[in-house]
Amino acid sequence: MESLTQRPYDAIVVGTGPGGASTARELARAGARVLILEQGSAAPLAGTLGQMAGMALPGRGAWLHRDASLLVAGTGLGGSSALNFATAAAPPAAMFAAHGIDLAPALAALRAELPLAPLPDSLVGPMAARIMAAARAAGFAWEKLDKMIRPQACRSGCWRCVYGCPYGAKWSARDFVEEACRHGAVLLERSRVRRVLLEDGRAVGVEFRREGGTHTARAQTVVLAGGGIGSPRLLHASGLGPPLAPFFSDPVVAVMGSVEDIEGGAEVPMAAGASFPGEGIALADLTLPVPMYAAFALQAGRVDRVGAHRRTLSIMVKIRDDIGGAVGPRWVDKRLTPGDRARFDRGIGMARAILEQAGARQVFATHHFAAHPGGSVRIGAGVDSELRAAPGLYVCDASVIPQPWGLPPTLTLLCLGKRLGAMLAGARVSSAAVSR
């Protein structure tokens, strides 16, 4: 252990979600000596409720104090990408161009190598197909969504996407971390970074806890990729950020209704949907595993629907919420604004219309939970257009997204990480040439 932390490193990457994994891979490919620190476990994904709960429940994620909403953040190798629904949305070019950032080259390169396409019809489950037909009949432009899934490895009738795919079908940031390690990067799991080490205002390393001890590692470049909650906390703990950071959470509700002529409940969620960018609303099918469905039904007070999982159609309503609330040193707090509530009312009305068209009865909506916390270290405020928070210190995760979001962030964060890694690798080569 001591020898690993005392090695000379060119860069330390804190966190293994899409942004951190993409940055680490790019640097390692270029020959940089990279240390990757992950506070969770790197155990193989088993696709079990127990493992998922250990990565995502409060204490790993965090309770939001307002409106009885739950924020979930994946803690483990791959971050939240190990537990998400594998849905990809391209970065909004205009949003980043406003800050002088062109993600098109990174996006083109990633599209050429990643599994990134709508599911074939054979993998679209009966509930998703029923919702798609009803949505189109109700006048919605309901289309298949791009999924980061390898169809040849995916299994019809499987429900494990959100538990962590054990079959290698769902792409996650683990893939990029493993590639970085093949290029010489060092990964230390169960390593919780406490603060960034600074000398004369410049980042020179990190302090972290591992195996009951406190350790330090040094490098000329530090990249924080701790997520929309973790990164602002680390900046504050290092004396570089405010104690309270406003953020967005991309809140979601599920609208559910039962039909009598279907037996399902085991399929890839978010196979298809519709987006309304002008209104800040997105809809998609959302078939969940039995325990998660039961928890949502109970949360909504619908004890009578707990046993109806196999007959219940579910539609996700996600909104682009206003930035507000605060990420504090030990807590997270955010309430819905009147605008947020109006967007939810509109989206829930759309979902009810689709379920009515599908012949569903006993329709109800759950309370909301937070899907993608971010915007807490925004480009143009917390970091510059190069994602730099201080000399030698960069941030690359959902916290840097510059405006309220409402989109699946994985592909955007991969693009930002690829761009940042290439920039840092180029700077390293230039520095080496000058020193010679």
Automatic annotation (TrEMBL):
Protein name in the entry: Ferredoxin
Annotated source species: Massilia varians
PROSITE patterns to which the protein is assigned, alphabetical: 4FE4S_FER_2
Keywords: FAD, Flavoprotein, Oxidoreductase
PANTHER family, sorted: LONG-CHAIN-ALCOHOL OXIDASE (PTHR46056:SF12)
Annotated 4Fe-4S ferredoxin-type domain residues: 145-175
SUPFAM superfamilies in the record: FAD/NAD(P)-binding domain
Record-linked InterPro entries: 4Fe4S_Fe-S-bd, FAD/NAD-bd_sf, GMC_OxRdtase_N, GMC_OxRtase_C
Similarity comment text for this entry: Belongs to the GMC oxidoreductase family.
